[in-house]
Design goal:
Length: 202
């Protein structure tokens, strides 16, 4: 499904002909809600992050870290351990050399320790993270959630549409249906997930 098809369905369910210009707002609110509620396989992204200092900006579409790893000399990869900012300073002072072992999130940056790279020889960390679904602007636009779970996206959008027209009965029903669709989507994801826990988001 794409944005144009989703918009047509929202208007159909609303039984209104005067809401066309409001549809993009409802869909954008739905995207915000889904970004909080969903952590699906299709939302995962894998990137290499070069560190020329101990911190590096997070991607603009970042939602949550799934894993951070660094290569080890004997082959393979070692996961970095997350610490809160309160603990990060303590563990950073305890281990001051070698490959990175710890990380934290500070404002909109990823911070690792120990850091022993440089501008000329950056430290490269592999990050698997959940990304925010792409914004829908043009009729042909789509994103990972809309492609995989169009019913979920539809009901998320209709929550705000029914609220806007003050159809409280339909809003309540749509809330319930959204919950059903969300649980169903999460259940279908269980069998495809690797099983590793998510770590932290901003």
């Amino acid at each position: 499904m794409n944005f144009g098809e989703l918009s047509d369905l929202i208007l159909y369910y609303l039984h209104r002909t005067d809401m066309d210009d409001k549809i993009p707002g409802f869909v954008e609110l739905a995207r915000s809600r889904l970004s909080k509620d969903c952590r699906f396989m299709g939302m995962q992204e894998y990137i290499e992050v070069p560190f020329t200092e101990e911190s590096s900006p997070l991607p603009a579409d970042f939602l949550e870290v799934k894993s951070l790893t660094v290569p080890v000399s004997r082959g393979g990869y070692r996961p970095l351990q997350f610490h809160t900012n309160d603990n990060f300073g303590r563990v950073s002072h305890a281990v001051v050399s070698g490959a990175p072992q710890f990380f934290t999130l500070r404002a909109k940056s990823l911070v690792i320790s120990p850091f022993n790279g440089s501008v000329d020889v950056p430290t490269v960390v592999s990050m698997n993270y959940f990304q925010r679904p792409e914004k829908l602007v043009n009729p042909e636009d789509t994103n990972s959630i809309l492609e995989e779970y169009p019913e979920l996206y539809l009901h998320a959008s209709l929550i705000y549409a029914h609220k806007a027209v003050q159809d409280h009965e339909s809003e309540q029903v749509t809330h319930q249906q959204y919950g059903v669709e969300l649980r169903s989507a999460k259940e279908s994801e269980i069998y495809g997930q690797s099983g590793s826990p998510t770590m932290l988001g901003v």
